[in-house]
Write a structure and sequence with these properties.
The chain is built from two helices and ten strands, in the order βββαββββαβββ. By secondary structure, the chain is α+β, with helices and mostly antiparallel strands. The radius of gyration is 16 Å and the shape is globular.
């Protein structure tokens, strides 16, 4: 069975970069601290607990892709984001998008108070796709390519870029699918 991914419309494609329109969605989100890798692992465990029955209905919720990680808005970061130095500690929001069949009203409430259910408004996103392990140097390079795409097309970033990872951990490194994405205004 295929893993559900958010549907979107591509408005512009240029190499590995795209400008996409996404519909409104619902996400489960946690905030965690640590370096990017440790925070992703901890956040994944907390969110997996929710979708594997850690909720008021003891209901399993299908896994979707991608898992999205962004530096928390309260964190002060110079230049580009997410945090781009290996080993740097930070505050991160880790997000699972919920299957499209759910709304905020139909999702069971999380048992863990650190898991928040949040609406994700419809948005236009600038995105750069890449493969591999999404190490810090990969994130730095792809974020710079995203920033160049945004600048070239006179777009305005409306927040911090996020790392979206689509592949399960057992996927061979060269087959992993990743994206750096940020909401934009024209």
């Amino acid at each position: 069975m295929a893993t559900e991914e958010p549907k979107y419309v591509v408005n512009l494609k240029e190499g590995s970069a795209e400008l996409r329109d996404y519909p409104a969605m619902v996400a489960a989100e946690v905030s965690v601290t640590g370096d990017r890798s440790d925070a992703a692992s901890e956040g994944f465990k907390l969110l997996a607990g929710y979708i594997f029955g850690g909720n008021t209905k003891k209901q399993s919720i299908a896994m979707t892709a991608p898992v999205v990680q962004a530096a928390s808005e309260s964190e002060k970061i110079a230049m580009t984001a997410p945090v781009l130095q290996t080993g740097q500690q930070g505050s991160w929001n880790i997000r699972f998008l919920m299957p499209s069949s759910y709304t905020l009203d139909t999702l069971p409430k999380p048992n863990n108070p650190s898991v928040r259910l949040i609406p994700v408004p419809a948005a236009q996103m600038a995105v750069v796709q890449f493969s591999g392990l999404a190490r810090e140097d990969d994130v730095v390079l792809q974020t710079s390519l995203l920033n160049a795409f945004i600048s070239k097309h006179k777009l305005q970033a409306l927040g911090k870029p996020a790392l979206a990872q689509y592949s399960p951990p057992w996927t061979l490194w060269f087959m992993r699918r990743n994206e750096i994405m940020v909401a934009v205004a024209r």
